[in-house]
Amino acid sequence: MSDAVRDFLFELGTEELPPLALPELERALAEGIAAGLAHAGLAHAGLTSYAAPRRLAVLVRGLPAAQPEQVIKRRGPPVNAAFDKQGAPTRAATAFAESCGVALEALGRITEGKGEFLHFEGRKPGAATVSLLPGIVQSALDALPIPKRMRWGSSDAEFVRPVHWVLMRFGDEVVPARLLDTDAGGTTRGHRFHAPQALAVPAPADYATVLREQGKVIADFAERRTRIREAVTSRAAALGGRAVMDDALLDEVTALVEWPVAVEGGFDAHFLALPREVLLCTLQEHQRYFALEDDKGALLPLFITVS
Which residues 6+ apart lie within 8 Å of 250 measured at CB? Predict the structure, then answer.
């Protein structure tokens, strides 16, 4: 990839995020960063968001190293107010030139309507992208739909859950930043139990692969959801039934696990005498289990949980 165009990765590592809020937090963070880039005049080749119980992340591909050069046009005071009757410049003229950072002689004139005005046109080099990224990300974090923020430890930072790490990488460069009272670095962390150590992310595009292969984390929400559906469906078939696949439950379970594994369980068959609604309420809403039924729709004394 050209040095003039690089990928950017931001990851916020936290304690377990509220599962029902996770999809909306993912969407809002991606939209906030996209809006900030657009406002700064930074075009890109695409944006991918990630969300898992302990992380929110955004990958931006093909981001330029600096803003495009800006053309600045300013209209000054009317010419008849900029010069006295002897043609000497007035304070209005010199103050306008000073505000533009040029000598009075460098100003032009422009006619608009029935008047003639002093005019300035110049070019301003674009700011380095790496200097803009911390502010763009901070604004996106501030705008997240979080009804109630919390503090932790002795920090004054506030977020929906305590923050443990921040990853910000622009190409092979770690972005110098401090967000939510946490210094940005170039590493992520894996699964809380399977791979809790810090994991280096050599390049932004390596993020999802590093987490999957070294960290036992599937960072992509949709990918994780698909894997859970397939695992539950397959396990149910192996047990001679089919899963009662509730979409809301599937979304919630997806937001609760980073490395899904389907595990079977069962209960005493005499509980099947209870109404179906009671059993489903207990299994789905209270335990986050997937109930099983036979080919006629009758519940079986079996369930599948995802750990």
Answer: 225, 228, 229
